[in-house]
Amino acid sequence: MARRGWVLWIAVVALLGGCGTGRSGPGGEGLDRQRQQAHDALARYDKAVLDAGGAQRFVPVGDLTGQLGDWEPANRDNKQALLAGRFFATSALPAAPQPTGQVIWENGASEAVPLLSAEEALRQMVVAGAGGCAECEMLEVTGARLSTARTQTTRGPATAPVWEYTLKGTTVRATRVAVASSATIKITPPSWDPFDTPAGLAIDSAATTAVNPRQLTVAFTGTPGPGSQPCGADYSAEAVESANAVVVIVIEHPHKPGETCPDIGAPRTTAVDLAQPLGERVVLEVQQGLPVPVTITA
Questions:
Q1: pTM (global) more than 0.90
Q2: Span 8-33, pLDDT tens digits
Q3: Which domain holds residue 14?
Q4: What is the DSSP string of 37-102?
Q5: How far is CA 175 from CA 26, 65, 131, 146, in A?
Q6: Domain count, the chain
Q7: Nearest of 235, 236, 285, 227 to residue 257 by alpha carbon
């Protein structure tokens, strides 16, 4: 969870750091490097699918740990403790009341998934936090119940089973997706090297339609203005594809290379045509090869 936020922060800083930093021009070594990153990402994802038995239905996007409610003024530091996985339970936590649950997408599609116990899901929350924030106070878990929550996936928003944990001293409840790891795709991105950061712009999300599933519209952070204006840019994209995933490379066409520009970013979009309809393939960003949310409309 913290890793994803750090990656996104670095991507925005790289984009906004001035002329050319982190940007993808219309060609040259930067584009070649991104294509290699894309092929590497596809290879990692294809292996992850193979390791999961060759199927990919429920692929959650982003953090599997969340919260319900707002921290009270006296408990504001608990937010960082939650992000860092600083939990412990004072008593035994329940097993899943049944072996499987249902993930239900907004279009009515559903998938039966094996469930975790509350204890195992809590252990995953601790591991996902990577033990950071050693100065944070531990959050005491006093109970758990199986519930459902809206979850982002590579096939759009879905309602998924979650464990909901009560915490001592607060009305905020921590949540964790209750689907067993065997039913999800586990992606291990490459190590982040601050002295050799990945090239390109990381997309935040993608959208397609049932009418034209061969076209993707991707969203990312770019320049506020178009390429016809000083410090502006236009954008195009290309897709690198496999049977399981698509990596989208965003290509920037700046007004004038090397301009000294203010550190301002804005939401931008661009479209790309695929060789084949997206289907159930996932969309990956080019920097770390991580999946992004996909919206599919009629």
A1: no
A2: 333 333 333 333 334 445 544 589 99
A3: 2-54+192-297
A4: HHHHHHHHHHHHHHHTTS--S--B-S-SEEEES---GGGTTHHHHHHTT-EEESSPPPPPSSSEEE
A5: 43, 6, 18, 10
A6: 2
A7: 227
**Cα–Cα distance between 218 and 125 in angstroms, integer?**
30
> 49 and 69: one domain?
no
- The Cβ-side half-sphere exposure at 125, using a 13 Å CA radius, reads 30
Task: Indicate the residue type of 239.
Answer: A
Instruction: Indicate if 50 and 76 belong to the same structural domain.
Output: no
In a domain, 279, yes or no: yes
Are both 71 and 49 inside the same structural domain? no
Q: What is the pLDDT of residues 233-277, one digit of tens each?
A: 999 999 999 999 999 999 999 999 888 888 899 999 999 999 999
Q: Are residues 136 and 160 in the same domain?
A: yes
Q: Average the pLDDT over 123-142 and give the result.
A: 88
CATH number at residue 149: 2.40.128
Q: Which residues contact 226 (CB under 8 A, 6 or more apart)?
A: 232, 233, 234
